[in-house]
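Dear all,

This email documents one entry for the complex benchmark we are building for the journal club exercise. For each entry we list the sequence lines for every component of the assembly. Then comes the predicted three-dimensional structure of the complex as a token string, followed by one or two observations. Please use this as the template for your own entries, and keep the labels exactly as they appear.
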Amino acid sequence: MQGLYDFLTGPALWLTFIIFFGGLLARGAFYWGLSLERDKIFWDHFDPVWSWRSIYHWLLPWGGVSFRQQPVFGLAFFLFHLCLLGIPVFLDAHNIMWEEYFGWSLPTLPDPVADWGVLVLLACVAFLFARRLVKPEVRILSTLWDYALLLLTAAPFVTGYLAYHQYGDYLTWLVLHILCSEVLMIIVPFSKLGHLMLFFFTRAFIGSDMGARRDQYGRLGARTW
Amino acid sequence: MTEPAEEIQAQETPEQDDRPVDLKKIQSILSSNSGARMRSWLDICARCGLCADSCFFYLANDKDPKLSPAYKVKSTVGEMYKRKGRVDRKFLREAYEVLWGQCTMCRRCSMFCPFGIDMAAMIGVGRAVCTSQGILPAGLAKAVENIRETGNQMAVSQEDWLETCEWMAEEYGEEIAGLTIPVDKKGVKYMFTVNPREPAFYPQDVGMMAQILHVAEESWTVPSTGWDSTNLAMFAANKEMAAYPVKLMYDKALELGVEQILVTECGHAYRSAAFEGPYFLGLPGGKPPLPVKHSVQLFWEYIVRDGRIKIDPEKKVTVPVTVQDPCNQSRSAGLSQMLRELSQALCADFRDMNPNREFNHCCGGGGGFIPMGAEFKKRRMISGKIKAEQIKATGAKIIIVPCHNCFDQITDLNKEYELGLKVVSFKELICESMIIPEKFIPKEEDEEPASQPGDDGGEE
């Protein structure tokens, strides 16, 4: 088990970071190039202000019109993303490692906050999973992969929680935690989770197209939020 | 009110056809549209289902999940990309039902999607694939044929168009002294373009517009060619033919050296002329060669902004009035505030629908639905339930509808749902209530119109 741990925190970790950041960068660069050739409409009407408004509102809780219409889902959706991104980046234990590896770290969350945050995230995952199963308009769109991805997203948090609280064998949970996290990070650039980056691009397009492109000669752009 | 568009473009029953599809053509359409946007949209749709509640087809049909925008996209254009274009005619016929029969490309879903996926644009690619294989509504196919042969979607001859102008100048000149409809006058401010429905079925629209422009002492002309600003080839997703009427219009405007193109009270005509046309023609920057103005904006400038036309307070409409936000004016053209200010200037009791402005619901007649014919009418009436309920909730007795397709649809809904409405255009209300300056009031001795069309250097 110790050997596996060493591998996962050694070469596998580096490989994960390379694939995660490299994959996102490569996909971004490819799409950028492609957009210059085939998405002239994007560049013709791109506007930083309308793009930002279109992005910013959807980052806020209930900032998007759909979330105001479905406020419970809106809240679950917001908290899910907040915890999903916030906890791993600002967790004390992770920052200690980064300090050790790279010589720098970020401000950290108090452990109890992160601990409760994981429970909030898991509750949100359960809600999103149930919603996918129960609501006909979501179920009809859902594939097995959609359910699997949601569970894969939750896995690092479940295993991390169990490891932190040392239920059962600590090292086993820790190894599983690292493994799940690495698998998830490797999947991101090649799946719909690529929206981590592409969200900004698609929102910039619709914001500029429906906003800036119409917002001239005394007319008003349309708010896409 | 009759339904001229449907009468002349009856839908034929699609005959069974086992011909193989042109795979290369399909793949070429899919490939040319497979840019960063399309790939991102296809890749990142989170299948969250939030778009469903934005769609009036879904809402009006007992929330059938197959009518959610994401499902409609996934089962048609999504499938085309997934199969790398290897689809058969049977698949395309099924897709046809969805692409034309279950979506008006109103773009409301894009505003409700957390990623802002432009599902209407995706549906447009699906339509282009079907059209490339000859699978499209007969009404639109006929319109495309008309455009090919005559440059306008209803095959109105140039002679008929010019005679309509002449006739209207005469008839509407009886009320406004000196009224003319100049043809091909060079160097004027506006070149006024219309929907062929006007010369074909509603010539009074041209007459009323002439009255307004004359009272405002505007510098304007109608062109003898390129006068059709509508674009049904756009809804057939036939890019080549969609470019043709736009080119005729731009070329004529440039030839006449006018300052701006003026578009009649029509939604999709404005969208085509001001926004999509440059892309059909591949113009740099995606901009038309000269500014394009919608009639609603011009009326707003005359009445609200500049006071060039005064409204008689005693002739203001007093019964409750609401206004329809055409998708191609409020959501896709930024005219929503002007629609309201203009309505309020003309009516004492203006009542807004809810939701409104850019969040309005499509009336159910957009995206080519009205000319698609009888085959589609039943579902047009069912899906129009949402708009009918919206209108009913306002308690309005009059609805202002500044779009020809919305006008037909709301007229039909009025009958179907017994709304008891009077459906009017802005120009109708303006003509009824504007103050005619003394100099334009005909005197006993000079009731004859002052001049004939063509006096200003026209071809006829």
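Observations: Chain A has one domain: 2-47+70-199. Residues 2-47+70-199 of chain A form a domain with the Fumarate Reductase Cytochrome B subunit fold (CATH 1.20.950.20).
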